[in-house]
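ok posting inputs for the GAZ job
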Amino acid sequence: MNASIHHIPVCPFCQRLEILLSLKGLRDQITFNVVDITKPRDPRLLELSKGTTALPLMEIPGRTALKESRVLLDYVEELYPDPPVARPDPYEHALESLLVEREGGFGAAGYSFVMNQDPAKRERFSERMLAEYRAINDILVNYAPGKTFFFDRFGWAETVFTPFFMRFWFLDYYEGFELPEGAQYDRVRLWREACLAEPCAQQVQFDQIVKLYYDYAKGAGNGALVEGRRVSSFVFEPDWPGRPMPPADKYSVSASDAELGLV
Ligand code: GAZ
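and the output
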Protein backbone atom coordinates (compact mmCIF):
# COMPACT_ATOMS: atom_id res chain seq x y z
CA MET A 1 0.00 0.00 0.00
CA ASN A 2 1.50 3.30 -1.11
CA ALA A 3 0.65 5.20 2.06
CA SER A 4 1.90 5.57 5.61
CA ILE A 5 0.01 6.01 8.85
CA HIS A 6 1.08 8.32 11.65
CA HIS A 7 -0.22 6.86 14.88
CA ILE A 8 -0.01 6.42 18.64
CA PRO A 9 0.41 2.71 19.37
CA VAL A 10 -1.89 2.86 22.41
CA CYS A 11 -4.63 5.02 20.83
CA PRO A 12 -7.91 3.13 20.29
CA PHE A 13 -8.67 4.93 17.03
CA CYS A 14 -5.28 3.95 15.63
CA GLN A 15 -5.73 0.35 16.76
CA ARG A 16 -8.90 0.10 14.65
CA LEU A 17 -6.78 0.55 11.57
CA GLU A 18 -4.16 -1.92 12.72
CA ILE A 19 -6.89 -4.50 13.30
CA LEU A 20 -8.47 -3.93 9.88
CA LEU A 21 -5.11 -4.20 8.10
CA SER A 22 -4.26 -7.36 10.06
CA LEU A 23 -7.58 -8.96 9.14
CA LYS A 24 -6.77 -8.25 5.49
CA GLY A 25 -3.20 -9.52 5.81
CA LEU A 26 -1.88 -6.03 5.00
CA ARG A 27 -0.41 -4.98 8.35
CA ASP A 28 3.17 -5.45 7.15
CA GLN A 29 2.57 -3.71 3.79
CA ILE A 30 2.11 -0.30 5.34
CA THR A 31 4.56 1.92 7.22
CA PHE A 32 3.44 3.04 10.67
CA ASN A 33 5.21 6.10 12.05
CA VAL A 34 4.95 6.36 15.84
CA VAL A 35 4.13 9.82 17.24
CA ASP A 36 5.08 10.74 20.83
CA ILE A 37 2.14 12.81 22.15
CA THR A 38 4.18 13.94 25.16
CA LYS A 39 6.40 16.01 22.84
CA PRO A 40 5.61 19.08 20.65
CA ARG A 41 4.10 17.96 17.35
CA ASP A 42 6.24 17.94 14.20
CA PRO A 43 5.08 20.96 12.11
CA ARG A 44 5.10 18.78 8.98
CA LEU A 45 2.41 16.56 10.53
CA LEU A 46 0.31 19.59 11.51
CA GLU A 47 0.51 20.73 7.91
CA LEU A 48 -0.65 17.32 6.70
CA SER A 49 -3.58 17.30 9.16
CA LYS A 50 -4.54 20.93 8.46
CA GLY A 51 -3.79 21.92 12.02
CA THR A 52 -5.54 19.25 14.10
CA THR A 53 -3.52 17.04 16.44
CA ALA A 54 -5.69 13.91 16.70
CA LEU A 55 -4.30 10.71 15.18
CA PRO A 56 -4.40 8.47 13.15
CA LEU A 57 -3.40 10.41 10.04
CA MET A 58 -2.84 8.72 6.68
CA GLU A 59 -0.26 10.22 4.36
CA ILE A 60 -0.88 9.33 0.71
CA PRO A 61 1.85 10.41 -1.73
CA GLY A 62 0.57 13.05 -4.17
CA ARG A 63 -2.76 13.48 -2.38
CA THR A 64 -4.15 15.39 0.57
CA ALA A 65 -3.69 13.36 3.77
CA LEU A 66 -6.72 11.68 5.36
CA LYS A 67 -7.75 11.70 9.01
CA GLU A 68 -10.55 10.36 11.26
CA SER A 69 -10.31 6.65 12.02
CA ARG A 70 -13.68 5.64 10.58
CA VAL A 71 -12.95 7.55 7.36
CA LEU A 72 -9.68 5.63 7.12
CA LEU A 73 -11.43 2.32 7.81
CA ASP A 74 -13.93 2.97 5.00
CA TYR A 75 -11.10 3.94 2.64
CA VAL A 76 -9.03 0.82 3.36
CA GLU A 77 -12.11 -1.41 3.09
CA GLU A 78 -13.01 -0.01 -0.34
CA LEU A 79 -9.43 0.00 -1.58
CA TYR A 80 -8.86 -3.62 -0.49
CA PRO A 81 -12.27 -5.31 -0.63
CA ASP A 82 -10.78 -8.81 -0.48
CA PRO A 83 -11.19 -10.32 2.05
CA PRO A 84 -14.17 -8.19 3.09
CA VAL A 85 -14.36 -7.21 6.76
CA ALA A 86 -17.58 -5.17 6.47
CA ARG A 87 -20.56 -7.18 5.18
CA PRO A 88 -20.66 -6.78 1.38
CA ASP A 89 -24.47 -7.16 1.40
CA PRO A 90 -25.98 -3.66 1.89
CA TYR A 91 -28.73 -4.86 4.25
CA GLU A 92 -26.28 -6.79 6.42
CA HIS A 93 -23.93 -3.81 6.46
CA ALA A 94 -26.85 -1.62 7.61
CA LEU A 95 -27.36 -4.01 10.52
CA GLU A 96 -23.75 -3.76 11.64
CA SER A 97 -24.00 0.03 11.26
CA LEU A 98 -26.68 0.01 13.97
CA LEU A 99 -23.93 -0.93 16.40
CA VAL A 100 -21.24 1.28 14.88
CA GLU A 101 -23.61 4.25 15.33
CA ARG A 102 -23.19 3.84 19.07
CA GLU A 103 -19.39 3.95 19.21
CA GLY A 104 -19.21 7.69 19.98
CA GLY A 105 -21.53 7.51 22.98
CA PHE A 106 -19.89 4.34 24.19
CA GLY A 107 -16.39 5.84 23.98
CA ALA A 108 -17.45 9.07 25.68
CA ALA A 109 -19.12 7.16 28.55
CA GLY A 110 -15.97 5.17 29.31
CA TYR A 111 -13.49 8.03 29.01
CA SER A 112 -15.54 10.47 31.05
CA PHE A 113 -15.96 7.76 33.71
CA VAL A 114 -12.23 7.06 34.04
CA MET A 115 -11.43 10.80 34.03
CA ASN A 116 -13.99 11.68 36.71
CA GLN A 117 -12.34 12.93 39.91
CA ASP A 118 -15.44 13.29 42.12
CA PRO A 119 -16.30 10.13 44.10
CA ALA A 120 -19.85 11.46 44.60
CA LYS A 121 -20.43 11.27 40.82
CA ARG A 122 -19.08 7.72 40.47
CA GLU A 123 -22.50 6.05 40.48
CA ARG A 124 -23.79 8.38 37.79
CA PHE A 125 -20.89 7.53 35.47
CA SER A 126 -21.23 3.84 36.19
CA GLU A 127 -24.95 3.97 35.38
CA ARG A 128 -24.26 5.76 32.10
CA MET A 129 -21.69 3.10 31.14
CA LEU A 130 -24.14 0.32 31.98
CA ALA A 131 -26.84 2.01 29.89
CA GLU A 132 -24.45 1.96 26.91
CA TYR A 133 -23.79 -1.76 27.43
CA ARG A 134 -27.53 -2.48 27.68
CA ALA A 135 -28.17 -0.60 24.43
CA ILE A 136 -25.51 -2.69 22.67
CA ASN A 137 -26.94 -5.83 24.24
CA ASP A 138 -30.38 -4.97 22.84
CA ILE A 139 -29.05 -4.38 19.32
CA LEU A 140 -27.22 -7.72 19.41
CA VAL A 141 -30.30 -9.56 20.72
CA ASN A 142 -32.61 -7.98 18.15
CA TYR A 143 -30.44 -7.86 15.04
CA ALA A 144 -27.35 -10.07 15.26
CA PRO A 145 -27.59 -13.48 13.57
CA GLY A 146 -24.31 -14.58 15.20
CA LYS A 147 -23.98 -16.38 18.54
CA THR A 148 -20.89 -14.48 19.75
CA PHE A 149 -19.85 -12.10 16.95
CA PHE A 150 -22.50 -10.00 15.19
CA PHE A 151 -22.27 -12.29 12.16
CA ASP A 152 -20.20 -15.47 11.88
CA ARG A 153 -16.75 -13.91 12.38
CA PHE A 154 -14.88 -10.92 13.76
CA GLY A 155 -16.04 -8.17 11.37
CA TRP A 156 -16.78 -4.48 10.97
CA ALA A 157 -18.52 -3.60 14.24
CA GLU A 158 -15.95 -5.71 16.11
CA THR A 159 -13.11 -3.75 14.49
CA VAL A 160 -14.66 -0.46 15.63
CA PHE A 161 -15.46 -1.51 19.23
CA THR A 162 -12.67 -3.87 20.28
CA PRO A 163 -10.12 -1.06 20.92
CA PHE A 164 -12.61 0.54 23.34
CA PHE A 165 -13.25 -2.79 25.11
CA MET A 166 -9.49 -2.99 25.64
CA ARG A 167 -9.13 0.65 26.80
CA PHE A 168 -11.96 0.07 29.27
CA TRP A 169 -9.73 -2.33 31.16
CA PHE A 170 -8.90 0.96 32.90
CA LEU A 171 -12.43 0.87 34.33
CA ASP A 172 -11.88 -2.66 35.71
CA TYR A 173 -8.72 -1.48 37.42
CA TYR A 174 -9.42 2.11 38.54
CA GLU A 175 -13.18 1.90 39.09
CA GLY A 176 -13.73 -1.77 39.96
CA PHE A 177 -16.32 -1.66 37.17
CA GLU A 178 -17.72 -5.01 35.97
CA LEU A 179 -20.69 -6.00 33.87
CA PRO A 180 -23.37 -7.25 36.28
CA GLU A 181 -24.79 -10.76 35.94
CA GLY A 182 -28.08 -11.05 34.15
CA ALA A 183 -29.90 -11.21 30.83
CA GLN A 184 -29.57 -7.47 30.17
CA TYR A 185 -25.83 -7.99 29.73
CA ASP A 186 -25.41 -11.63 28.66
CA ARG A 187 -25.31 -11.06 24.92
CA VAL A 188 -22.92 -8.11 25.05
CA ARG A 189 -20.71 -10.07 27.49
CA LEU A 190 -20.36 -12.86 24.92
CA TRP A 191 -19.65 -10.32 22.20
CA ARG A 192 -17.01 -8.52 24.23
CA GLU A 193 -15.25 -11.77 25.17
CA ALA A 194 -15.15 -12.91 21.54
CA CYS A 195 -13.81 -9.50 20.48
CA LEU A 196 -11.07 -9.52 23.14
CA ALA A 197 -9.89 -13.00 22.04
CA GLU A 198 -9.45 -12.16 18.33
CA PRO A 199 -5.85 -12.94 17.22
CA CYS A 200 -5.77 -9.95 14.82
CA ALA A 201 -6.65 -7.55 17.68
CA GLN A 202 -3.83 -8.27 20.13
CA GLN A 203 -1.91 -4.99 19.66
CA VAL A 204 -2.23 -3.93 23.32
CA GLN A 205 -2.26 -5.64 26.73
CA PHE A 206 -4.06 -5.16 30.05
CA ASP A 207 -0.99 -4.02 32.04
CA GLN A 208 0.01 -1.64 29.25
CA ILE A 209 -3.38 0.07 29.25
CA VAL A 210 -3.49 0.31 33.05
CA LYS A 211 0.00 1.83 33.25
CA LEU A 212 -0.21 4.22 30.30
CA TYR A 213 -3.67 5.50 31.15
CA TYR A 214 -2.83 6.34 34.77
CA ASP A 215 -2.94 10.04 33.91
CA TYR A 216 -6.46 9.70 32.45
CA ALA A 217 -7.51 8.10 35.74
CA LYS A 218 -6.16 11.26 37.40
CA GLY A 219 -8.15 13.48 35.04
CA ALA A 220 -5.43 14.39 32.52
CA GLY A 221 -5.98 13.27 28.92
CA ASN A 222 -3.96 13.15 25.69
CA GLY A 223 -0.47 13.37 27.20
CA ALA A 224 -1.29 16.37 29.46
CA LEU A 225 0.52 16.57 32.80
CA VAL A 226 -1.10 15.83 36.15
CA GLU A 227 -0.45 18.58 38.70
CA GLY A 228 2.81 18.03 40.58
CA ARG A 229 4.17 15.61 37.99
CA ARG A 230 6.90 16.19 35.44
CA VAL A 231 6.54 13.09 33.28
CA SER A 232 3.44 11.84 31.48
CA SER A 233 2.38 8.20 31.93
CA PHE A 234 2.34 8.07 28.09
CA VAL A 235 6.12 8.47 27.68
CA PHE A 236 7.95 5.76 25.72
CA GLU A 237 10.99 5.75 28.05
CA PRO A 238 11.04 4.09 30.53
CA ASP A 239 8.90 1.62 28.63
CA TRP A 240 5.78 0.29 30.40
CA PRO A 241 6.86 -3.37 31.00
CA GLY A 242 9.52 -2.18 33.46
CA ARG A 243 7.16 0.05 35.43
CA PRO A 244 5.18 -1.08 38.52
CA MET A 245 1.38 -1.35 38.42
CA PRO A 246 0.00 2.04 39.57
CA PRO A 247 -2.10 2.38 42.73
CA ALA A 248 -5.69 1.44 41.83
CA ASP A 249 -7.22 3.98 44.24
CA LYS A 250 -7.48 6.98 41.91
CA TYR A 251 -9.72 9.05 44.22
CA SER A 252 -7.46 9.35 47.25
CA VAL A 253 -3.95 8.47 46.04
CA SER A 254 -1.81 10.49 43.63
CA ALA A 255 1.31 8.58 42.65
CA SER A 256 4.53 10.48 41.96
CA ASP A 257 6.71 10.12 38.87
CA ALA A 258 9.05 7.89 40.92
CA GLU A 259 6.23 5.68 42.25
CA LEU A 260 5.01 5.19 38.68
CA GLY A 261 8.51 4.18 37.55
CA LEU A 262 8.71 7.17 35.19
CA VAL A 263 12.03 8.56 36.48
N1 GAZ B 1 -12.25 11.12 15.92
C1 GAZ B 1 -10.83 10.82 15.83
C2 GAZ B 1 -10.65 9.51 15.10
O1 GAZ B 1 -9.61 9.31 14.47
O2 GAZ B 1 -11.58 8.69 15.11
C3 GAZ B 1 -10.27 10.77 17.24
C4 GAZ B 1 -8.77 10.55 17.29
C5 GAZ B 1 -8.16 10.90 18.67
O3 GAZ B 1 -8.87 11.40 19.54
N2 GAZ B 1 -6.87 10.65 18.83
C6 GAZ B 1 -6.19 11.05 20.06
C7 GAZ B 1 -4.97 11.86 19.72
O4 GAZ B 1 -4.36 11.69 18.69
C8 GAZ B 1 -5.64 9.87 20.83
S1 GAZ B 1 -6.79 8.76 21.37
N3 GAZ B 1 -4.54 12.71 20.65
C9 GAZ B 1 -3.27 13.37 20.55
C10 GAZ B 1 -3.39 14.82 20.28
O5 GAZ B 1 -2.36 15.47 20.39
O6 GAZ B 1 -4.50 15.30 19.94
C11 GAZ B 1 -11.03 9.42 23.77
C12 GAZ B 1 -12.02 10.10 24.47
C13 GAZ B 1 -11.69 11.14 25.31
C14 GAZ B 1 -10.37 11.54 25.44
C15 GAZ B 1 -9.39 10.85 24.75
C16 GAZ B 1 -9.71 9.82 23.91
C17 GAZ B 1 -8.71 9.05 23.17
O7 GAZ B 1 -12.75 11.74 25.98
O8 GAZ B 1 -8.80 7.86 23.12
O9 GAZ B 1 -13.34 9.79 24.39
C18 GAZ B 1 -13.73 8.84 23.46
C19 GAZ B 1 -7.65 9.72 22.48
C20 GAZ B 1 -12.47 12.73 26.91
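notes: Residues 8, 11-13, 37, 53-56, 68-70, 107-108, 111, 221-222 surround GAZ (CB under 6 Å). The mean pLDDT is 97.
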